[in-house]
Structures are given as C-alpha cells and as structure tokens.
Amino acid sequence: MSDIILHHYDLSPFSEKIRLAMGVKSLDWHSVTVEAVPPRPDLDALTGGYRRLPVLQVGADVFCDTEVIFRALERIKPAPTLYPQGEGIAKALSLWWDRTTWKPAIGVLVAHIGEHLPQEFLDDRRDHYLGYDISKEGMAPMLPAYVQQLVAVKEWLSSMLAQNGPFLTGDTISAADLTCYHSLWLLRANAGAEIIDSQLGLGSDITGWMDRVAAVGHGNSTEISTSAALEAAKEAEPDKAHLPQGEDPSGIAKGTRVTVTPDDNARVPVTGTLVAANGQEVVVAVDGDATGTLHIHFPRAGFETLPA
Q1: H helices within the chain, ranges in order?
Q2: Start-to-end CA span in the chain (Å)
Q3: What tens digit of pLDDT does each residue of 168-213 get?
C-alpha cells in the first residue's frame, strides 16, 4: 500500500483530530503543510477543487472530510480501532459536535486573538468559506451567546465522562473523543488554557480528559513537498481495496458525471465520474495532467451527491 500523506496546517483543529488519529494507531505518515488561505493549486489538483482541510492521500486515493479519513485509516490499520463501542455513537457525536460548536468556538477565539488574524484570512472565511464575518468586531455582539452555547455542551461532555469515563464512550479512546477535543484544543492553544478554562468553566474532568486525549500523540511524521505528493499520486493507481461495498441508495448509476458538495459551508462542488457509493461513502474519479486518474472519496453524511 502507498504511503499515508496528510495535507494540513498546524492550527487547523480538524487537522488536529486526524493527527491524533495517527497517534491512536501509531502510524507513520508524511506531512504536507499547506496555506490556511487559498490559492492552493497543487492541492486543488489532488482534490478537484475541494477547499476544506485536512485532506488525506494514499497514492492515487484522496479522502476529503475527517469522517471519511477516519474510515480510510480504519481500513489501513484496523487495530486499535477508532470505534471501540461501535461506529454509530462516535459518528453521531462527532457530527453533532462539529456542527454545534464550530461557530461559537470561532466567536470566543476572535474575542481573544481576533486582532492578530490576517485580513486576507478574515476576507476568505467571510466571502468563500463560512459566509459570515469572523472579525473581532463582527462577532463581538454575540459573544455572550457563544459562551452560553459552549458552556451548555461542555456540561454534556462532563455528563458523558461521569457516566462512561475516562473517555466519552467508555474505557477506550474513540473518534468521538478526537472530535470533541479539537475545538477546545483550538481555544486553549491560542487564547491560553487558564483564560479559556475560566471563561467556559472547564473543570478537572474536562481538562483531565483533554490531557488523556493529547497523550496519544501524532504518530511519526516526515515533512514532504507538495510536488512529492503530486508525484506519488501520478505514480500510483487507485486502490480497489478503498472502494466502498454495496449499492448507492440514491440510485445514481456508476459512470454518471456527478458533483459532490458540502451541505454546510465551503460549498465548492467537486465534479467527477461516479465510481462507487454506498450509504456511507461516495467515490468519484477525476483525471488531471499532474496526477493521472484519482479516486476522490467523500462521506455521505454532510455532503450532497447529484448528477452534474
């Protein structure tokens, strides 16, 4: 099997949960550091224009969105699993947490460090990614609400740990822990742990749990260039072992030209030829001069696949 390549940047919280997944599985992987703000022409060549991070590459297979990246890592190294109590509870908690906490976490973050964010970053997130103003001034009026929202769901985490501890779904770390950790990690890493712990009322149950999650580390990474990642794709062929099994419940025939688009933000469609799909994953083929034929993978939850 080809080497694992992760396209990411250091302060991306969604990238952090995949880096932690590498740690859970003690994987060796190659790191490609990309810019937080496009243009990213080499990454676009690998993803068909998908603009969110992180992106996982294994040869000529490219995985977009953390849910399908977790699925790929499970195929590559099944043990230890990211789903020790089953997939359903971890995936449901992950999707809930990502969608519930992302905006309030940004609101709290910019209250503390918003003046340090580059204008090009703010403009990009407003105009091309999130669709709303994340400047300090733009989010300040809603700060009390953002704090309230995070405190509410933080207390739910406390309840889960009291019931199931030391991790959210039981005795063993799961994908749910990696997801629910990442937005609190973003806040504490950038605004200061003492400040955030005080503002959100994070007690020792939450901070101790975060310490246990962080302790898994990031596996073993080696930095490579974007050109090396492109070359790895061009030299490989898509691996049939990564194709999902089963039928597409939407009834779209294989070979159909389709678009795959996130249904929440950064709604940039990727156009390709439908190769395989089931209830959990969809794969499209995209051809490029710099990469050859790629199979680009997306989850079904949170994405829309429609005939082009």
Answers
A1: 13-24, 41-47, 66-76, 87-113, 119-124, 136-139, 143-164, 175-191, 193-200, 204-214, 226-235
A2: 32
A3: 999 999 999 999 999 999 999 999 999 999 999 999 999 999 999 9
**95 and 35 co-located in one domain:** no
The Cα 241–Cα 130 span in angstroms is 34
CB 241 within 8 A of CB 58: no
CATH no. for residue 303?
A: 3.40.30.110
- Give pTM, 2 decimals: 0.97
Q: Which residues contact 296 (CB under 8 A, 6 or more apart)?
A: 47, 48, 50, 62, 63, 64, 260, 270, 272, 283, 284, 285, 286
* Sign of CA pseudo-dihedral 276, 280, 286, 290: negative
Are 265 and 192 members of one domain?
no
- Residues 147-179 have pLDDT tens digits of 999 999 999 999 999 999 899 999 999 999 999
Nearest one of 282, 279, 306 to 295, comparing CA atoms: 282
In terms of residue numbers, what domain contains 188? 87-214
